[in-house]
Design goal:
- This protein has about 150 residues and is an all-alpha fold.
- Helix content is about 85%, strand content about 5%.
- It contains 5 helices and 2 strands; from the N terminus they run H-E-E-H-H-H-H.
- Strands 1-2 form a two-stranded antiparallel ribbon.
- A hairpin with a 2-residue loop joins strand 1 and strand 2.
- Helix 1 runs antiparallel to helix 2, helix 1 runs antiparallel to helix 5 and helix 2 packs antiparallel against helix 4.
- It is elongated and about 60 Å long.
Length: about 150
């Protein structure tokens, strides 16, 4: 289900960064001598990684174990529990790292422009790239959801 969860895990922190950059960031210049956008950006990146890993580690593994019986099927093959654990942990780490990169990239570029002044060509390119990404991920999420619900 990584395709359907990727959309929200990348778009939500990005929206938070833009909202705080445009909204509250316009009212607060700095926090403890650090520009507000940089101050809040680090927290958004950290929370994106934390929430994506905690959700996958707790809820997804529970569903795979209890309802989907995925682990029973895997353990019926020549895979043992430590290998299964390492595979799940590695997958969660990779996803969390990727999800943390999206707000980090947006924080170098779009939010800084929103606070310190727009570089219009570069800013439009970044907004366009995010829009294309959101559209592609949305189409993929709908396709996967349709396949899971209807087929």
């Amino acid at each position: 289900v990584w395709r359907s969860t990727t959309f929200g895990s990348i778009v939500e922190p990005t929206i938070n960064l833009v909202a705080f950059g445009f909204g509250f960031g316009a009212l607060v210049a700095s926090v403890q001598g650090i520009p507000y956008v940089q101050y809040i950006g680090t927290g958004v990146v950290a929370s994106a990684v934390l929430f994506s890993s905690v959700f996958a580690g707790m809820f997804d593994t529970y569903v795979k174990r209890f309802y989907m019986k995925t682990y029973d099927g895997i353990l019926a093959t020549p895979v043992d529990v430590p290998e299964l654990f390492l595979a799940e942990a590695a997958w969660i780490a990779v996803k969390s790292g990727i999800y943390g990169c999206a707000p980090l990239l947006v924080c170098v570029e779009l939010v800084r422009d929103a606070v310190f002044g727009w570089d219009l060509p570069a800013g439009l390119g970044h907004v366009l790239a995010l829009g294309v990404f959101a559209a592609v991920m949305g189409v993929l999420a709908v396709r996967v959801l349709r396949r899971r619900l209807i087929d």
